[in-house]
Every structure is written in C-alpha cells, then in structure tokens.
Amino acid sequence: MIAIVGGGICGLSIGWRLAQAGRAVTVFERGEAGMAATWASAGMLAAQAEAEHGEEALLPLALASRDLWPGFAAELAAATGIDVDYRAEGTLVVAVDRDEREALEQRYDYLRGLGLPVEWLTGAEARSREPALARAVVGALFSAADHQVDNRRVASALRAAFLKAGGTLREHAAVESIVTAGGRATGAAVNPARAFGPALVDNFWTDQWLYWLGPILGATIAALVYNYVLIPKSQQPPS
Ligand SMILES: Cc1cc2nc3c(=O)[nH]c(=O)nc-3n(C[C@H](O)[C@H](O)[C@H](O)COP(=O)(O)OP(=O)(O)OC[C@H]3O[C@@H](n4cnc5c(N)ncnc54)[C@H](O)[C@@H]3O)c2cc1C
C-alpha cells in the first residue's frame, strides 16, 4: 500500500494518479481533505505575473505546470462531473498610485526581459478590460496566459476523482510519526500491540507475523544469553 500524508491538492492529485494507475493508495488527512491551504487559496494560475527575481530556474516548470491546467480541469470534469470553473480571460495586476505604478513598471520590464508576453495598460485601458476596477487604477500589467480556477471546486473534484478511482481516504487521521526500519519507511514497530491496531483498521496484514515473532524471539534469545552467558560469569568468584 502507498500512504500519502495530507489530503490537499498535492496529496489528492498524486493519489488520484496512483489510483488510476491501479496502485493501492491511502491518503491520511488530519482534518478534512482540501480544507487547508488548498481551500484558502485564490485559484490564480499566475506563473508569469508572479514570477520572482531569483526564481528564474523554476520558471519553466511553473509555466509548464500552468499550461497543463486546461487538460487537467477537463479531465477532472469528465471523471467527476464537477466543473472547476477554469477561466482564461487572463490576469490583471493593478497599481492605484504613482509608487505602485513605478514598482509595477519595473516588474513589467523584468518580465519582458525574461521574454514573457505581458502587456502594459493605462488605467483607462485596464478599466475597459475590467469595468469593475476603481477609477483610482493608474496602470496595470496584463498577462493573457495566466488563468484561474475555483480552487474549492478543484478540492471537491479531486476528492471525488480520487475516491472514484479506488483510492482510500482516511480523514481525521493525523500521522504522528513515520516509523522506519533499516532506513526505509516500513511502518515497522517492534511492538505487537502498536502494529496490531493499524493492521486491524486498514485490514493490512502483510508481515504481521514479524511483529509478533520478532519480539518473542528477541526476548527469548536475550533471556538465554543472560542466563547462560552473563549470569555464570558474574557468579564466578573474583580472582
Ligand atoms: C491565502 C492563500 C492564497 C493562495 N493563493 C494561491 C493562488 O492563487 N494560486 C496558487 O497557485 N497558490 C496559491 N496559494 C498556495 C496554494 O494554496 C498551496 O501551494 C497549495 O494549496 C498547497 O497544497 P498542499 O496540498 O501542499 O497543501 P494543503 O492544501 O495545505 O494540504 C496539506 C494537507 O495536509 C494535512 N496534514 C498536514 N500534516 C498532516 C499530518 N501529520 N497528518 C495528516 N494530515 C496532515 C493538512 O491538514 C492539509 O489538509 C495560496 C495559499 C494561501 C494560504
């Protein structure tokens, strides 16, 4: 079984793909799936408009990821019937005074320098594109390729798609620790009582015998060593 800790957009997306590929996958979520940062976000797919100095190496990945969204949204809708409201009108970043306009102009120059197709709009041009903008807007950066989704619908759709593909979701199940043995995450705990509970809840009995036989064998060997090796030595009279 593959265990994923956290049922946000990342955990559910990965879980969905794994379940589609026929893997047995369980997402453990300490609260309710999709209700943390995924719920709080604004759903902006603004890889261009939000490109930052120092992150130039990351930019191609962000742009490629953004460009996967139309297909991803359509696939989610086909799988679940939930429309995630993918909107392709583009993204406006606005300035409402002279200082903001200067900062935004610098940002525009930086993005153009990266070869990104952004446009500069005057306040009037921005308002003609988006009539709800305030008259105070004095300039805007327009990024036609940056789009938007309804992130809360994405969360609901991913949850549904994951379950429909055969994934198991355990909500209100915080993962407190990841137990490793020999370097890999195995879930192993050399404590039969500790291992029995999760096995029972998950109905996952692989290697369960090990957790019972291991401690019993270990304790038996320790007792024999103590009795026949250590005790006789300690009982010898001091020389
Ligand atoms: C206010 C705000 C606005 C944002 N706006 C945007 C935006 O417009 N566009 C954009 O692309 N990004 C935006 N982001 C960022 C985006 O929301 C995150 O990058 C994204 O949601 C991260 O997804 P995630 O699955 O990693 O995290 P989350 O959605 O936070 O999911 C992680 C889950 O793991 C669970 N968890 C944690 N620890 C454990 C544990 N030990 N056991 C079990 N479960 C555990 C949590 O309960 C949570 O549900 C915004 C973020 C915020 C906060």
Q: Kindly estimate the percentage of residues that lie in beta strands according to DSSP.
A: 15-25%
If you compute it from the alpha carbons, what radius of gyration comes out, rounded to the nearest whole angstrom? Answer: 28 Å
Shape: elongated
Number of helices: 9
**Overall helicity:** 40-55%
Give the name of the CATH superfamily of the largest domain. FAD/NAD(P)-binding domain
Describe this structure in words.
There is one protein chain. This protein is an alpha/beta fold. The protein folds into 3 domains: 99 residues, 3-Layer(bba) Sandwich (FAD/NAD(P)-binding domain), CATH 3.50.50.60; 54 residues, no CATH class; 50 residues, no CATH class. 47% of the residues lie in helices and 15% in strands. The strands form 4 sheets. A 3-stranded parallel sheet has the order 1-2-8, with helices on one face. It has a 3-stranded antiparallel sheet with strand order 4-6-5. The protein has a two-stranded antiparallel sheet with strand order 3-7. The radius of gyration is 28 Å and the shape is elongated. The site of flavin-adenine dinucleotide (FAD) has 21 residues, from helix 1, strand 2 and helix 2.
